[in-house]
TrEMBL record:
<dbReference type="InterPro" id="IPR006076">
    <property type="entry name" value="FAD-dep_OxRdtase"/>
</dbReference>
<feature type="domain" description="FAD dependent oxidoreductase">
    <location>
        <begin position="5"/>
        <end position="394"/>
    </location>
</feature>
<keyword id="KW-0560">Oxidoreductase</keyword>
<dbReference type="Pfam" id="PF01266">
    <property type="entry name" value="DAO"/>
</dbReference>
<dbReference type="InterPro" id="IPR036188">
    <property type="entry name" value="FAD/NAD-bd_sf"/>
</dbReference>
<dbReference type="GO" id="GO:0016491">
    <property type="term" value="F:oxidoreductase activity"/>
</dbReference>
<protein>
    <submittedName>
        <fullName>NAD(P)/FAD-dependent oxidoreductase</fullName>
        <ecNumber>1.-.-.-</ecNumber>
    </submittedName>
</protein>
């Protein structure tokens, strides 16, 4: 008989899990409190980044830590009360920044990211949205003369890992992006990456593809998860649903659902903000840019240019603090002529992060039939499709497309 599975969470990771399980013949139901792609997956820069293989907590964090401690840097802000309430996560996060912990984590991230763009291209074609993809890479930019050395070190690291990048001088950068102001001393064009013009719409289209293939999409707020005989029961505010298997892919809400089962996940969040602005008349960007020293990304989107902020370490549901995005706005205008806001709102989202900056992918210890897929931090848009393929292969007893050991839930759940 066909096994049934309920996937909880309709972001990029959850929808990717649903599609991968469906492809293998399982009867899949996808549940979320909002429409697909409306939570964490909605607010990124839309980059499918082959080069996002360096975890945030790498050995270079130590030299930057003093400037972050002042809590005024655009790259990282924190709420002190939140850090004091989560000492275990902070200590675990910092302990992973040791040099001997870097190589295995880079290799693990690479295994998630390297196959991502071909998978996205296939899914976009099948979903009828290939036109949303820009196969033009993205730009990493440095302003200072010291940035030249940083750009060269970055280029060497990426090329050592098989990632194609091209170093650009001012003239080459101007030819590629003529609307950028000439304030950058060094640039890298990431040639193996691509971007989309509206990330939320991509997830929505993937969910529509899943539904068109016979999958069920339900909009309910999940309130409970429990063992029911040989299977699992999902409780919502209005109904209960039983299935042979359950997949928790609720991103920053995953730990809340698992805690009553005795599964204490050391999950924290990287909060981030974005706004949309109109370009000055006749000015445009062909691809996203990352202004490294100013700590923002600017990405051309369907509704204007999306300006994204750095990381805010705060409780998932804490009130907004727009200090970071206000801080980067004038720096972005130094680089590109932004005019009025394209909309009145500032979006905020929370990216789920485990201490080692790697996701959890696999079956929960002591809970047969309960599968976990979350913790993809700020690169879930890139790593979601491969996460889904790994999980579905494990569920079905197939060889996984990447070594699942680095992502095993048992590394944090005994």
């Amino acid at each position: 008989m066909t096994r049934s599975v309920i996937v909880l969470g309709a972001g990029m990771v959850g929808v990717s899990c649903a599609l991968a399980l469906q492809k293998r013949g399982l009867k899949v139901t996808l549940v979320d409190r909002r429409e697909p792609g409306r939570e964490t997956s909605y607010g990124n820069a839309g980059v499918i980044s082959r080069s996002s293989i360096m975890p945030l907590n790498n050995p270079g964090l130590w030299k930057n830590l003093p400037k972050y401690l002042g809590n005024r840097h655009a790259a990282v802000r924190y709420r002190l009360g939140h850090l004091l309430a989560n000492p275990g996560w902070i200590l675990g996060f910092l302990s992973e920044a040791k040099p001997d912990r870097l190589a295995p984590r880079v290799a693990a991230l690479e295994s998630l990211i390297a196959p991502s763009l071909p998978l996205h291209k296939r899914l976009m074609t099948e979903a009828g949205i290939a036109w949303r993809l820009r196969d033009t890479g993205f730009l990493e930019l440095w302003r200072s003369e010291e940035g030249r050395a940083a750009a060269e070190a970055r280029r060497t690291f990426l090329e050592d890992h098989g990632v194609r990048v091209e170093a650009l001088d001012r003239q080459a950068l101007s030819a590629l992006e003529p609307s950028l102001n000439p304030i950058f001393s060094a640039a890298l064009l990431h040639k193996d990456s691509a971007s989309v013009d509206w990330p939320g719409a991509v997830v929505e289209a993937y969910a529509a593809l899943f539904a068109a293939r016979g999958g069920t999409v339900l909009r309910h707020e999940v309130t409970g998860l429990s063992k029911q005989g040989e299977g699992w029961r999902v409780t919502t505010k209005s109904a209960q649903y039983d299935a042979d298997l359950a997949v928790v892919a609720l991103g920053p809400w995953s730990a809340d659902l698992l805690r009553p089962l005795g599964l204490k996940v050391p999950l924290n969040v990287e909060r981030g903000y974005h706004r949309h602005y109109q370009p000055a008349q006749g000015r445009f960007l062909n691809r996203p840019i990352y202004d490294v020293e100013a700590s923002y990304m600017l990405a051309p989107m369907e509704r204007g240019l999306r300006l994204t902020s750095g990381v805010e370490l705060a409780h998932r549901d804490a009130p907004d603090d727009h200090a970071q995005i206000e801080q980067v706005l004038p720096r972005a205008r130094e680089a590109f002529p932004l005019t009025e806001p394209a909309e009145d709102t500032t979006w905020r989202g929370s990216r789920p992060t485990l201490p080692d900056s790697l996701p959890m992918i696999g079956e929960a210890p002591r809970n047969p039939g309960l599968w976990l897929a979350f913790g993809n931090q700020h690169i879930g848009f890139s790593t979601g499709p491969v996460t889904g393929e790994i999980l579905a292969a494990l569920v079905c007893g197939e060889p996984a497309p990447a070594d699942p050991a680095p992502f095993a839930p048992g590394r944090y759940l005994s």
